[in-house]
Amino acid sequence: MAKVLVIGAGGVGSVAVHKMAMNPDIFSEVVLASRTLAKCDAIAASVKQRTGRDVATYQLDADDVAATTALLNELKPALVVNLALPYQDLNIMEACLAAGVNYMDTANYEPIDEAKFEYKWQWAYQERFKEAGLTALLGSGFDPGVTSVFATWLKKHKLDSIRTLDILDCNGGDHGQPFATNFNPEINIREVTAPARRWEKGEWVETPALTIKQTFDFEAVGPKNMYLMYHEEIESLAHHLPEIERIRFWMTFGDAYITHLTVLQNVGMTRIDPVIYEGKEIVPLQFLKAVLPEPASLGALTKGKTNIGDIATGLKDGVEKTFYIYNICDHEEAYAETGNQAISYTTGVPAMIGAAMLVTGTWGGAGVFNIEQFNPDPYMDMLNKHGLPWQVKELEGPLEF
Ligand code: NDP
Questions:
Q1: What's the CATH code, domain 146-339?
Q2: How much is the pTM?
Q3: Which of 227, 252, 219, 225 is nearest to 328 (CA)?
Q4: Looking at the predicted complex, does its ipTM rise above 0.95?
Q5: E strands within 176-318?
């Protein structure tokens, strides 16, 4: 029974708060704070209507460490679940240290003017969280999050060691818009336009963005083109599971998405450095975000399924084996349950589960942790019970590309 403060009233925050409210035995009190109070209030109204539970709401600029610390001192939650943007991570971690509260997020810190997707800034907090006797759990969404838990589960139950790991992220959903992103457009476009990096034999191998493509037949979706990308969990998995020789991340995109993105990139609209427009500094990608559909508005329109999982090859009792572990999530079912599409759902449910692991004391410890450092079993049980059931099957051999 714990009080939790969620920061960030976007699609992911909405799902997490709904799912926490559905589990009053774990989350006795859920509080939501974000930059725009009206968005918090809309989520609280939906939660009340769907579950009968009250969610207190607060306006908060989480970049203001003093304001966040003051709110934490007033509310005294057991945990802060940071579902704002990656830019806020360090400021919220500072406030947690100042107020003596545990911390969790779903995306690693990003400086506003550099697209890096590196853990170094958050890992640098290790000693301070350790000394304070507080836990910081980094990356409890789907990817990062569930995909890393899938890897540790395979290592615990199916393989003695993992040699190669491929993370396959397929969104087979269709929202009917010419161009839109399924989560925060600024973060999404930063990720997709960054050079593709994979981990191979102890080194990073880099190729230009969206240049390596494969077709894969996803269960419940069908054949899709997927592109090699960098994704932040590759760094933490390579660090915590150094036995893995090669780690790659793939994400599916339709041809229309790639064409739009290429044009936007060619004309400079995805730039994250400021330009002067009519005497004022603007960042092209932030302006683009302002004219694109809000991801939350796509919920009612999106049909189809996501299929996200891991393919791992390694040794079991001296014999090489390959396993595929994945979850399939339906956009319309996700929308019916919480009023949000499956991308927000597949992130918000693991955020709730990560929070449950910490507040029940199932996971814990003093310091900064990535999710693959904990026992995967209780997390995997909760995925099955709370809307993200998974399946595992043995493949005939390793991926041939
Ligand atoms: P949204 O843009 O929909 O929501 C972000 C929310 O944070 C908005 O309500 C925004 O407020 C609020 N916010 C932004 N800045 C501040 C601030 N300074 N203080 C307080 N609140 C602030 O994003 P999503 O819900 O799609 O994503 C949320 C997080 O989840 C992101 O960090 C994203 O990277 C991560 N994510 C992780 C995934 C995973 O699998 N691990 C997958 C998808 C997302 P306002 O409405 O006023 O702008």
A1: 3.30.360.10
A2: 0.97
A3: 219
A4: yes
A5: 196-200, 203-207, 213-218, 222-229, 246-252, 275-277, 280-282, 305-316
| Residue pointed to by tokens 């083109």 | 225
What is the DSSP code string of 247-275?
EEEEEE--HHHHHHHHHHHHTTTT--S-E
Distance from C-alpha of 65 to C-alpha of 71, rounded to nearest angstrom: 10
Ligand 1 mean position, distance from CA 78 (Å)? 21
Tell me, using a 6 A CB cutoff, whether residue 109 lines ligand 1: no
Q: Where are the beta strands (DSSP E) in 38-160?
A: 56-59, 79-82, 102-105, 135-138
- The candidate with the shortest Cα–Cα distance to 132, out of 108, 92, 103, 104, is 103
**Token pair in block for residue 228:** 């090699």
Q: Is 117 in the pocket of ligand 1 (CB under 6 A)?
A: no
Distance (Å) of CA 255 to CA 224, 258, 293, 354: 10, 5, 19, 35
Residue type at position 367:
G
pLDDT digits (tens, 9 = 90+) for 335-388: 999 999 999 999 999 999 999 999 999 999 999 999 999 999 999 999 999 999
Q: What amino acid occupies position 240?
A: H
| Cα atoms in the 13 Å half-sphere on the side-chain side of 30 | 35
Spatial neighbors of 148 by CB under 8 A, at least 6 apart, are: 139, 233, 236, 237, 370, 371, 372
